[in-house]
Structure formats: C-alpha cells, structure tokens
Amino acid sequence: MTGTTRLAPDTALQRLEELGRSSDPSNYIVDGIPPRVALELASPEAVAEALALCAAAGLALVPWGGGGQMGLGNLPERYDVALDLRGLAAVVDYEPDDLTIGVQAGCTLARLAAILSEHGQMLPLDADDPERITIGGLVATGLGCPRRFGYGSLRDLIIGITVALPDGTLARGGGMVVKNVSGYDMMRLHFGALGSLGVIVRANFKLLPSPEAQRTLLVAFPSLEEAMEGALAVRGSQLAPTALVVLAPVTAERFVGMARWTLAARCEGPEGAVLRQAERLAETAASATSEARILEHEETLRFWSSLQGKLAATPLVDVIRVRIGELPSRLGELAARLVTEWGSALEDAVLDVGSGLAFATLAGTVEELRAAWTRLAGYGRHATMLAAPRDVKAGYDVFGRPPEGVAVMRRLKETFDPERTLNPGRFIALL
Known about the structure:
Strand order of the largest sheet: 15-12-14-13-17-18-16-19
CATH architecture of the domain at 91-209: 2-Layer Sandwich
Shape: globular
CATH topology of the domain at 91-209: Uridine Diphospho-n-acetylenolpyruvylglucosamine Reductase, domain 3
Number of helices: 14
Helix content: 25-40%
Oligomer: single chain
C-alpha cells in the first residue's frame, strides 16, 4: 500500500505478519524495550509495504540487521515493530572487472569479504564480529574504522543506494539504478542517519584491490607525550599508513602485551613496499626510549579486527563508550584529561590519530556514568555516546551537542517521515 490511508494498529499488525515470518520479539530488545512484534522480510518490496502499514497505523518501527551496533541511539520514543533485514542478503550486481558491487542490506561483512576475496578485491572495513555486522547497519550508523585514514570513509565508496520510505515507495539514487530522486544526494542523506529517514535495502559500492601484504608497526613509549609526538610525526610524513592509532597502556597490554602508550601504524600494499614502509615508519616514530615490534599479515588482520570491538556501538552493560572528535594535534591533551579525570575507571582508550577521534570506555555505577557523560559531552569538537546502559541514557541526547544543521535535519524528518514511523526519538536531537 502507499499513500496516507489510515489503519487500526491491530489491523496493521495482522497484515504485517502476512508479509514475512514472525520472530521472537525478545531477540530484538532495544535499550531494554522489546517490540510488540518482530518480522523477518525477504524482499525490498515487502519492506516498503511494511513501512507503509506502520505509517498508516501510527506504529513505530526499528530496522534490524545483526544487532551489533544497536547500542547507538537515544532511547526509543515508541517501539512497536522490529524489522529484521537479514533475509535481504543477496549480492545482486557484481562486476569484478569494473570494481563495483551491489548488495542487499542484510548481507554480512563476512559474506561480502569472502565473495570479494575470490577476485582479489575488498571494502576497507574491519569488524570484531563480521558474521554479525551487516552492510545496511554499517551504512546506517556510519561509524567506520581507522582505515578511513588511508582509504576515506565508507560513504566515499557508495555509488548507489535503494531505500524503502514510509509512504511505501522504493527510492533509488546514484549508480546501478533506473530511477533517481531529484533534489537529494541519497547516499549522503541516509549515510549515518540511523534509519530515521528510510530503511536501506541495497547499497552499491566501488571496490578496491586487496593489498598483497599487510603489516602493523607497534611502538611502545614511556609517556603519552612521546607517543603522540611519534604519531604526529608519522601523520605528517609521506609514509602513508592506512591506519594510525595510539593505545592507552591498559588497552595496549590487553591487545599486544605492551603496557605503555603504544602507537600502531598499519601498512598495506605490495610485499616489498610494505616491508620498506614499516622500516621507515619505525625510523620516523621510534625514539631511544621506545620499544618496537612488527605484526605480520595474519597478526595484523586479527589485531585490527579485535581492536574494532573497542570502537563499536555494541550494546554494553555497566560501562559507557564515548567517541570524541578532536583535532589530531590536540588528541594528546584530550587523552591526558581522560586519564587525569577518570583514572582507574577508564577501561580502554584508543586515539585514532589518523581521523581525529578518541574512543573511551568507562566503568562505574549508573550515577557515576551519568555524571561522566554530562562532562564528556562537552569534550572536544563533538562527542557521541556510542553505547551505555538504558538508565545512563535516560534523559540525555546520546549525540551530544546539537549540530548547526539540526533545523535542516528536522525538516528532512518531517518530509520523509511525517508520522515519525522510523526509529522515533533515537537519532540526533531526538528526531
């Protein structure tokens, strides 16, 4: 159905169950709240029909992929229907010679990587649980990984998108399409919008050749100041690592057994070039008091995949995870402030020097974590609560200070989702 036909909620729920397979609502809890119904759908058309039914009946819908990033978002204003998209998992258009692919939103990162590896191609993404992370979830959250330093954001690789809208239509934009929505940049509009304007059902990407070899240079320093000096020297050089982070001692000890402030620089490319790059990076970053080691190819893959778990929006219990944006040159000051103010409560800290982001995970009681967020929300250029217990989120906007364009965002929400059907209240400024 399309249009603005009104339906009774019970009628809409009954018709929804005819579109797909019902699932156990207890498997789709968002911030402690289960939906009234959970539905597994297998086609873009069914998704569009489900959105139209929900909009007509005033039901609130939350799109669901693997659930691996569901920690991100404000508490739901309402939550009636969970829409499981994992049945939309097909690769629908793959042209290896053109380095392009179109996949449905429920395709997991693991499955996509396996298909691309057969042709020596990739999307430069890492995940600690790639069997759970879906392509639709990656686009909807827009969280990315440290490899954005070398390859750019995932948004830069999207060439086309198909989105189901609450009016029951499928809107297409960009490449590999037969219909475009005039007046909107569809890829930028829906990237990182948390499914608040439409449900992504397909995305098309330009691909990259897989690197022949990968290595990671680790350099442990006796102080934060020395680690940041080394990292900024690398960042300002022409050595071009694809990812560049500094780990706090507690994090470095857990991941690589080096209980000091530790720089990690990722090298990717031809075998010989990667060897030379790692050596030159060590010369640039290391000092007389530092300790260096190299992670080989397989170790590199495991390290960055595992580290991504400390940067993700996986739902958390008893801790809060915050992402803070700051100039790379000021990340050292920010890290020093985190250590001074939070001490042993700081369970993990990762400074993404390449992208200008700090990730901090803090432990404490609900009251302590709520007090922490009121201060952390003012750190840096912007701050986002990536994940936290429900009682910590209550009453706050987890996206921190409203951006300058919030008025435009409100108008877009009113245009695309006037009934507040999609993820109501969960996005920036409680949209």
